[in-house]
Amino acid sequence: MKYLKIIISLSLAVLMFSGFWDGKSDKQLKKEAKKERFLERNKRLKVNNETLQMLFKEVPEARKALLKSYGYATFSNVGATVILFSYEGGDGVAHNNRNGQNTYMKMNSAGIGLGLGGKNFRSVFFFKNKKVYKEFIDSGWEANAQADAAASYDESGGSSGGAVTVKDGVLLYKLTQDGLLVQATLQGTKYYKDEDLNGY
What we know:
Layout: H1 2-18, H2 26-58, H3 62-68, E1 71-83, E2 85-96, E3 102-112, E4 115-127, H4 130-139, E5 141-143, E6 148-149, E7 164-167, E8 170-176, E9 179-180, E10 186-193
């Protein structure tokens, strides 16, 4: 029995100093995870606001279009193109204008592109109605082909100011630090819920 206690004590000591157990309780770990989610959500909301201000500076009429939309989503993503291969990855937040609810999202893509280099991009989606908004956040969305240029977003004929229609009722602006972006690539981009930040 004496030797058994010694073996157990040594085993616990090994676990403590080997990194398998850091001495934190489940309650402490949950508290830290909650704090990390809180900080990440705030970070994304801050970037969301910055992205909208960038858009309004480039396209003032977009402010009115946003207010008329059922909801919108902003993404901050990094894109890189090397000869004939391009990649984008990032995260963002979707906002329901009707009830004020936020849904945290992720995105990534890989496709065929022309050029060499890398850039930071901001993307802003406007959703015309509840159906297309809920499809976007609940089912995710994948763009398998280049979007078609659009002259207007709604029936009133308001200018899209450089945006493209990626789906019926869904308008997309892409921006760089220098302004609106026209990207000559075919991208298979996926947008989906960030399971780590929603539902807590």
